[in-house]
Write a structure and sequence with these properties.
There is one protein chain. It contains two helices and three strands, in the order E-E-E-H-H. It is α+β, with helices and mostly antiparallel strands and 99 residues long. It has one domain. Strands 1-2-3 form a three-stranded antiparallel beta sheet, covered by helices on one side. Strand 2 and strand 3 form a beta hairpin. It starts with 18 loop residues before the first strand and ends in a 7-residue tail after the last helix.
């Protein structure tokens, strides 16, 4: 039977993936991003980038997740969800700053 559960605040769960993603909004690339705000995501291993993707947020998200899926890296569902949410925020907020 269906029930509605109120989602109370909980802390983040770290996934020990060893990687993190740095997300940027690219201000001057509107034309090359199909009229959408352009974002860049850098998959990082400690302080060094492994790979970067640039384009509309949805394209960047899909390519980044495909790359991670096909690599030896594993990220949790919570980590993937956070990346998607941050990419979306970067695409809609001209003053975006990653949390």
């Amino acid at each position: 039977m269906w029930k509605l559960i109120e989602a109370m605040p909980i802390g983040a769960t770290l996934d020990d993936s060893g990687v993190h993603v740095v997300i940027h909004r690219i201000a001057n690339r509107i034309v090359t991003c199909e009229g959408l705000a352009c974002v860049r995501a850098d998959l990082m291993d400690s302080d060094e980038p492994i790979v970067s993707f640039i384009g509309p947020a949805e394209n960047v998200r899909k390519h980044l997740m495909k790359y991670i899926r096909e690599s030896t890296y594993f990220i949790s569902c919570e980590h993937a969800s956070y990346i998607g949410a941050e990419l979306y925020r970067a695409s809609i907020d001209p003053a975006y700053c990653q949390d």
